[in-house]
Design goal:
The longest helix has 21 residues. Strands 3, 5, 6, 7, 8, 15 and 16 form a seven-stranded mixed sheet that branches. A six-stranded parallel sheet has the order 11-10-9-12-13-14, with helices on both faces. Strands 2-1-4 form a three-stranded antiparallel sheet. It is built from eleven helices and 16 strands. By secondary structure, the protein is of the alpha/beta class. Strand 10, helix 6 and strand 11 form a beta-alpha-beta unit. Bound molecules: NADP nicotinamide-adenine-dinucleotide phosphate (NAP). NADP nicotinamide-adenine-dinucleotide phosphate binds next to helix 1, helix 4, helix 5 and helix 11. One of its GO terms (cellular component) is cytosol. It holds the Pfam family ADH_N. Keywords: NADP, Oxidoreductase.
Length: 345
Amino acid sequence: MTTAVFPETIEAFAINKTGGIEVLEKMTLPFPKVEPGHLVIKVEWIGVNFIDTYYRQGLYPYSSFPAVLGKETSGEIVALPTDPEVLNNPDFQRMGYQVGGKVAVDFLGTHSTYISVPWIKAYTITHGVSTRIAGAGLVQGLTALSFFEEAYKVKKGDTILVHTIAGGLGLLMAQLGKHLGATVIGTTSTKEKAEIAKAHGADHVILYKEEDTVKRVLEITNGVGVDAVFDGVGKDTFESNFEMLRRKGTLVSVGNASGAVPPMSPLKLLPKNLKLCRPTMNHYIVTPDEAYFYGDKLFEMISAGVLRINIFKEYPFTQEGAQQAQKDLTGGKTTGKLLIKVTQD
Ligand SMILES: NC(=O)c1ccc[n+]([C@@H]2O[C@H](COP(=O)([O-])OP(=O)(O)OC[C@H]3O[C@@H](n4cnc5c(N)ncnc54)[C@H](OP(=O)(O)O)[C@@H]3O)[C@@H](O)[C@H]2O)c1
């Protein structure tokens, strides 16, 4: 076997301290350490996620600096693991990795030109999906699929409420909810965003800046409330969710776009026997079977047109491009996915 030769350095979006958008820099850093169980990938596309801004601002901690941002990329495998135990593992072999093959990756610290990641974090792109769409759809797609399966199992006849319905995750939840036979209610800020959400399957979209969300949800559900709420807004919407859930309903706290939810007493769940969970996709998809199941399902559903990945904008691979992408995302103006193009086709 020939040993792969890598460049000495990478170009990466990284921070030396947490803070505002100005701490995000494009840095030249040493090539990452390649472990024997790692795949090395030349990155083509970077998916921008809200979580990148939580890390940049310090809501989620880094243990050391400089810290490379980001948790979603796609590109081409340039080196396979060298550990014979990994190479002979049937779970590894099932993924069909090969040099030159395309993968989408969900792993922290991956917004750079080359990455070295544990093989389990790389999803072989199947079902004819492009590297661009896989890089745009992986994290939010796996989140929608695993949350609708495991946080609350969405089924035919359910009525669900999805906040941030016109966002990257929200548009996928709208489509998946409809596909599973649920009535999907969403909230968003503008009429334009509401139209996009409806075009992706939302049945009712409430303009929370103009309408009373609780009143409208209770009207739509004849006073009963919804089976589940998926709430990516966090601080601003958390309290009102309790008024909109039906007896035995489930509140899935998905994220913190408006800030972290303050601590609460479990007694708050008692009046309607509600369930509350605060999951992350990364703890639903851990084992090789889970990764294979959800990865294959995602690419199959994209390929079949069940899930359309709405790309809001492509940004250049520059410091200004990366800063602008995070600014646009936290500024609440975006609909769908933000992508950064790293290499030319
Ligand atoms: N737990 C997980 O594993 C997981 C995985 C992926 C995403 N998430 C979470 O899901 C949520 C959506 O993520 P996304 O990447 O798809 O983002 P996004 O929904 O495309 O963008 C965020 C949207 O949140 C709304 N928003 C409401 N209050 C806001 C505020 N104070 N500041 C900024 N935005 C506000 C805005 O939409 P409106 O104009 O409609 O209000 C904004 O466009 C985030 O909270 C994210 O952290 C969680």
